[in-house]
Amino acid sequence: MWSRHEQSQSDTVRVSKSLNEGEIKYVQDRMVSVEKCLKDHGIQSNNVPHIAVLGSGGGLRAMIGLLGCIDQLYEANLLDSVLYLCGVSGSTWSQFEAGVLKQKTAERDILYLQGLCGSVLADRKEIPHLIWQRIKISMDDMATKVVESILELFDCEDDEESAKHLQKIHEIMSVIKSEHDNTARKSMVGKSKEEKYECLAEIALDAYREFKGVFHTLSDEVPEEVLSDERTHLEDAGPVMDSPYVAALRPDRKVKLILSFDFSVGDPFMTVIQAAKYCKDTGIPFPPVDIPEEDKDKPKDFYVFKRENTPTVIHIPLFNMVNCKGDVAKWRQRYPTFTLGYNREMMDELIRVSGLNVANNKNRILQEISDACK
User: Fold this and answer.
1) Beta 255-262 vs 100-101: how paired, if at all?
2) pLDDT at residue 344 is higher than 60
3) Three-class DSSP category at 258
4) InterPro entries from the xrefs (predicted)?
């Protein structure tokens, strides 16, 4: 007769046979730790669930926020219950495959990492410096100003302020454009978020066309697969779906419970709503997502979406009515996405507040893990 440990390993091999060899071994090794972790919490089952922790995008806010959540998962002795840790944009740093570090790089201090560990759009200082210093052409000052103004627009919700940034872009572009150019002037007034992003994409493309001469020196570093395509659209994963549900929901990973930490800006339910729509369109099992209207501006600190034959999704907004003591708007304003950095006090406070989302909900997380074992 097989022991429970042997049975769980056999099940892992069977359900994971389409994974690569390295990931199969990783799953086997990790499931031993997962089973022990659950036993430590009084949960014993022949059906040990595959659990994934997701971190959304959100620049430096997401990077530090996820650190606070992971730290509290460790303190609560829950971290070993996790099989997969997935991130997107600001929640990603050190690249791993099957639990093994793919490439060791020199350590950097937090002042350097605060930009480069987030979305490339969040780094208004390092990226222009690295690119424009290397290109060394007479137009680099103007190009940098255009890039910085475009980045400012991504986080700007005030029509008057947006108009100022647009005016700066139009003034710079008018200097370098032909006198016969008839490009229409863009406006952000009255546009939805989706229309705003489309407009910004057009502005960025327009700027690229004018400055494209500065980019030709980089072409030898672009993969041949990209250069050979007639049309290739590359985009930070954040604007597409600001949480790594697609990675976690690969069928061969058999994830049964998702613990999603949302650090994104704006609508605190956008990521899970986007995931539900994506799964509906692609035929991937996903529970229905129903958000009370009153929660959209005043989110709670713990939501569970579940249905038979779908993964259970725990959704936790970073700033909520519990850890922010009712003042969500103040905390959102204090920690913007596009920033040159947070001071040490702000970082410590963000780690504390994000950690409360785990500490305050430990028992509820354990209950969902227990239910997933059935």
Assistant:
1) unpaired
2) yes
3) strand
4) Acyl_Trfase/lysoPLipase (IPR016035), LysoPLipase_cat_dom (IPR002642)
pLDDT tops 60 at residue 332: yes
Going 342 to 345 to 347 to 353, the CA torsion angle's sign is negative
**CB < 8 Å & 24+ apart, contacts of 295-299:** 295/269, 296/267, 296/268, 296/269, 297/328, 298/326, 298/328, 299/268, 299/269, 299/328
User: What gap in Å lies between CA 257 and CA 342, rounded to an integer?
Assistant: 33
- Cβ–Cβ under 8 Å, residues 135 and 170: no
Distance from C-alpha of 83 to C-alpha of 76, rounded to nearest angstrom: 16
Compute the distance between CA of residue 50 and CA of residue 256 in angstroms, rounded to an integer.
5
Question: 115 to each of 140, 191, 277, 339, how far by Cα in Å?
Answer: 21, 29, 31, 9
Instruction: Please determine, for residue 181, whether its predicted confidence score (pLDDT) is greater than 70.
Output: no
HSE at residue 248, side-chain half, CA atoms within 13 A, is 32
Measured CA distances, 205 to 138, 208, 224, 349 (Å): 20, 5, 22, 39
Handedness of CA 200, 194, 114, 320 (dihedral sign): positive
> Please, what is the average pLDDT of the chain?
76
Question: Reduced to 3 DSSP states, what percent helix, strand and coil does the chain have, rounded to the nearest 5?
Answer: 55, 10, 40
- Helix 159-176 and helix 140-154, axial crossing angle in degrees, nearest 10: 160
